[in-house]
Design a protein that fits this description.
By secondary structure, the chain is an alpha/beta fold. The protein is built from eleven helices and 20 strands. The longest helix has 19 residues. It starts with 6 loop residues before the first strand and ends with a strand.
Length: 394
C-alpha cells in the first residue's frame, strides 16, 4: 500500500520490537532515513516493505523515532483516539471531590510517547518530552481544551529527556492564564501546588497509593520521611495518628510547602519537624533516634545503565543507614526506587546486602501499590520504573 507519509526503513531483522509494540526506534536499527524535517511523522517499514507503525522522527537523538500508532490509517486520528482513550480510563477511577489531582496521560504507559498530562483541579499541566510531541503542541492543546474544557493549560516541559531530544525547557501558559499557585485535594488532604519552579509537574502523583498506605500504618508511630519534598508521606502519617514526624530534604522551598501543608490540614503545631539537610548526612548524624517508621523515597540514582554500579552502592548505603536508625526492637521501613535500571529482583538483592551490613533482619510485608493513573504498558516495560517494599526490621 502506498503511503502518504515519508518512509523510514529498518535494517533486516530489526523489526521484532516494533511488532511487539515497543515504542522506541534506535538509530542503529535504521537502514534509510527519509529526507524530512525532524519532528515530522513518518511511516516505518520493515526491510521487506511491510508496515510497522507511524512514528515521530528525530535523527539527532539515539532513539531516533517514537511509535505513535501501530495501525494503518490517519496517524493523527489514531493519536487522538489514544488520547481520548487515556482520558476515558481516568474517568472510571477519578472524579470524586476527595481527589482532584491525578495523571490523565502517562506517556508510553498510555501508548503516547512524549506526552504527560496531569490534572490539578481545573488546570491541566502538560509536559512534552520528545521533538515530535513538541511540534504538536498547539494541536494537543486544542484537543485537550475540546475534550476537557479546563480553566487553563500550563506547559511545564523540562528535564533530561528534552535535552536528549535537543529541546530547550519551556514553562508557561498554553491556554488561558491564572494563578500558578493551586490548591488540590488528594484523598481528603489539601496540597498547595506551585506550577512554576518545583519538581515534576507539581506533585509526585505516582506515589498516591503509598502515601495513603502510610496513613493506614502511621498510628502511634514516630516517623522519619526522607527525601520528603513537600511532606506528603509525613503529613499522611500524622493524619493517620503518628505521634511525630521529621521531614528531611535539601530543598528548602519544598520544606516550606510541607510546613504550609501541615497547617492547611490541621496538623498540630510541633508534630512536624523540618530539616533542610542532605539525607545521607542526616542519617549519619540525626537529632533523635526513636524512629519506628522510616520512609526512603530517593530520586533516581540510576538514570542510565552506566550508572547502575554506583546506584547499587548508593541504595545499599541508604538502606543500611535507615535500618540502623530504626529502634532495635523492630520497626517499619518503606523503601522505594524509581530507577528503571534497577529492577525489582536487583532492588531486593540490594536490601539483602543492606540488612546484612546493618546487622539487622528484615522481612517483606508488602510490595508497591501502583497508582491507577500511572498504568504500565506491558509492551514497553520501561514504564514499570517505580517499586517499593514495606519491611519489618529487627
Amino acid at each position: 500500500m502506498a503511503s502518504s507519509y515519508p518512509i523510514l526503513r529498518l535494517k533486516p531483522e530489526r523489526e521484532i520490537h516494533l511488532k511487539n509494540r515497543h515504542h522506541a526506534i534506535f538509530k542503529n536499527a535504521v537502514a534509510a532515513f527519509p529526507d524530512v524535517e525532524n519532528g515530522s511523522i513518518v511511516d516505518v517499514r520493515a526491510h521487506d516493505g511491510s508496515f510497522l507503525c507511524y512514528a515521530t522522527l528525530n535523527t539527532g537523538a539515539y532513539i531516533c523515532a517514537r511509535a505513535i500508532a501501530f495501525q494503518q490509517g490517519d496517524p493523527l486520528r489514531l493519536l487522538r483516539h489514544a488520547i481520548e482513550r487515556a482520558i476515558a480510563l481516568r474517568s472510571r477511577f477519578f472524579g470524586a471531590d476527595d481527589t482532584t489531582a491525578f495523571r490523565l496521560i502517562n506517556a508510553e504507559g498510555d501508548a503516547i510517547p512524549g506526552l504527560i498530562v496531569d490534572r490539578y483541579g481545573d488546570t491541566l499541566v502538560v509536559q512534552l518530552t520528545t521533538l515530535g510531541m513538541d511540534r504538536l503542541r498547539e494541536w494537543i492543546a486544542d484537543l485537550l481544551m475540546e475534550a476537557l474544557h479546563p480553566a487553563g493549560i500550563f506547559e511545564k516541559s523540562a528535564g533530561p529527556a528534552r535535552k536528549k531530544e535537543g529541546l530547550a525547557n519551556r514553562e508557561g501558559w498554553l491556554r488561558g492564564e491564572g494563578d500558578t499557585n493551586l490548591t488540590v485535594v488528594e484523598r481528603g488532604l489539601s496540597y498547595r501546588i506551585a506550577l512554576q519552579g518545583g519538581q515534576k509537574t507539581g506533585l509526585f502523583l505516582d506515589q498516591r497509593e503509598m502515601r495513603s498506605f502510610v496513613r493506614e500504618l502511621g498510628s502511634g508511630r514516630t516517623v522519619l520521611d526522607c527525601f520528603s519534598y513537600v511532606g506528603g508521606f509525613a503529613m499522611n502519617a500524622l493524619k493517620g495518628g503518628a505521634l511525630y514526624a521529621d521531614a528531611v530534604d535539601y530543598d528548602e522551598d519544598a520544606l516550606a510547602q510541607a510546613r504550609e501543608h501541615a497547617a492547611m490540614n490541621g496538623i498540630e503545631s510541633g508534630k512536624l519537624g523540618i530539616h533542610a539537610r542532605d539525607v545521607f548526612d542526616f542519617l549519619r548524624n540525626p537529632p533523635r533516634r526513636d524512629y519506628d517508621f522510616i520512609i526512603l523515597d530517593p530520586p533516581a540514582f540510576a538514570k542510565r545503565s552506566t550508572d547502575l554500579d554506583q546506584a547499587k552502592r548508593a541504595y545499599t548505603d541508604l538502606n543500611r543507614l535507615g535500618m540502623q536508625m530504626l529502634l532495635p526492637e523492630g520497626g517499619l521501613l518503606l523503601t522505594c526506587s524509581c530507577s528503571y535500571q534497577m529492577d525489582a529482583a536487583l532492588f531486593q538483592m540490594v536490601i539483602f546486602h543492606a540488612a546484612r551490613q546493618a546487622g539487622r533482619t528484615a522481612r517483606i510485608l508488602h510490595r508497591h501499590r501502583a497508582a491507577l493513573d500511572h498504568p504500565v504498558n506491558v509492551f514497553h516495560p520501561e514504564t514499570d520504573y517505580l517499586k517499593s517494599m514495606l519491611l519489618w526490621v529487627e
